Amino acid sequence: MFESFGNGEAAAAVLEEARETLPEVPSWTETEKLKFEKEVLDFYLSSHPLTQNEQLLRRFASHTTEQMKHLPADQEVTLAGMFTQIALKNTQKARNGNSRYLLARIEDMTGSAKCVMWPDDFARLRDEVRDDLPYIIKGMVDRRREEPTLVINRILTMEQAQRELARGLYLLVQVGRAQTDDIERLGAVLRQTPGPCPVFLTLKDRADKKCLLKLSRDFAIDPNRIPQAELEAILGPNSVRLM
Questions:
Q1: Which of 101, 110, 240 is nearest to 169 (CA)?
Q2: Which helix (H) or strand (E) holds 189?
Q3: How far apart are CA 68 and CA 230, in angstroms?
Q4: Is residue 64 a contact partner of residue 110, using CB atoms and an 8 Å limit?
Q5: Which has more confidence, 70 or 127?
Q6: pTM (2 decimals)?
Q7: Across the strands, what pairs with 197?
Q8: Which residue ranges form the domains of the chain, and what is each CATH number?
Q9: Helix (H) or strand (E) segment spanning residue 21
Q10: What is the pLDDT of residues 42-61, one digit of tens each?
């Protein structure tokens, strides 16, 4: 095809030389790839940054951004998502020496919601705010304007949320399905990641009757290192819940 542009052999040689001189660079991470897609296309093409944490985010959120739009004023809300359209502003009058505040949107898998973080809270939490990480975001609904706004008073990373908000790991055991060696395997898996989070067994029989048992502290687990795949391999799908 190069002949139409002149000397085909010369053009091919130039391309070959370029290939040889291009530096070796590492491949983009999934996060970087999605970020560049958003910058160039204004939407995510191959996936969404929250997809890999979707189940975990849902565990900690009290509402979605879409549901927040219909909540009354002063309702306490916990959203799970990422910051977008971040803008820093200054108030006309500083309070406690702080004047800078944040305006942004919180995006989840259902949409996005407007949010604000006033100067005192922003001074305390400013180092936590990035536009490429998932967060658990707490605040109150403000309805003084046309679009409801979340007034943020707390931001938690995923690791902080699992450590501070996790109240227990609940495992569903189907009586009749689980064997004695399954329970022994279960104990062995739990002991691999010891931590402060208590573990509960919900025993369910064929008549759908349930019994809740709390395991001893010997089986308490680190909520940041739950071996979900191993546990579900023993107990079956949808049998592991972090509350």
A1: 240
A2: helix 180-190
A3: 35
A4: yes
A5: 70
A6: 0.62
A7: 221
A8: 51-157 (2.40.50.140), 166-242 (no CATH)
A9: helix 8-21
A10: 545 455 567 777 777 777 88
